């Protein structure tokens, strides 16, 4: 999937590097050109305002993604890049039916 936002082109793919043109980094970012976490990427893919708390992602998934992103080392975070193709699968999970029903 090729996307252009704020004049920055990036690709989310199943390739080994996961993301081309985006740097995964700790904490919130003003825009995609400053870097991103997986939840900011999810907000972008969902067509939501740039945020690390996208409304379309289940709050528990978002909390786990933010915690992992912000607590791992830069070296470990770079190894998360291949997970980027899974980010679109998180979009829409906020409306999943309750478990056990």
Structure description:
By secondary structure, this protein is an alpha+beta fold. It has four helices and three strands. It has a three-stranded antiparallel beta sheet with strand order 1-2-3, with no helix packed on it. Strand 2 and strand 3 (19-20) form a beta hairpin. 26% of the residues are buried. Residues 1-18 have low confidence and may be disordered.
Give helix % range: 25-40%
Measured distance between first and last alpha carbons: 35 Å
Strand order of the largest sheet: 1-2-3
The chain-level structural class is alpha+beta
What's the mean pLDDT score?
75
Radius of gyration: 13 Å
Low-confidence stretches at least 5 residues in length (pLDDT < 50)? 1-18
Q: Give the total of domains.
A: 1
The global form is globular
Keywords:
single chain; 30% helix; globular; 101 residues; alpha+beta; 4 helices; disordered N terminus
Could you write a compact summary of the structure shown?
With 101 residues, the protein is an alpha+beta fold.
Spell out the blueprint of helices and strands.
Blueprint: E1 2-5, E2 8-12, E3 19-20, H1 38-45, H2 59-71, H3 74-78, H4 87-90
């Amino acid at each position: 999937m090729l996307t252009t936002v704020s004049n920055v082109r990036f690709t989310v793919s199943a390739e080994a590097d996961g993301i081309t043109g985006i740097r995964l980094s700790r904490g919130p970012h003003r825009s995609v050109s400053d870097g991103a976490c997986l939840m900011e990427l999810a907000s972008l893919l969902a067509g939501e305002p740039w945020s690390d708390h996208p409304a379309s992602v289940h709050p528990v998934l978002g909390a786990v993604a933010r915690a992992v992103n912000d607590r791992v080392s830069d070296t470990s975070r770079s190894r998360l890049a291949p997970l980027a193709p899974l980010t679109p699968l998180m979009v829409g999970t906020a409306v999943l039916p309750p478990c056990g029903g």
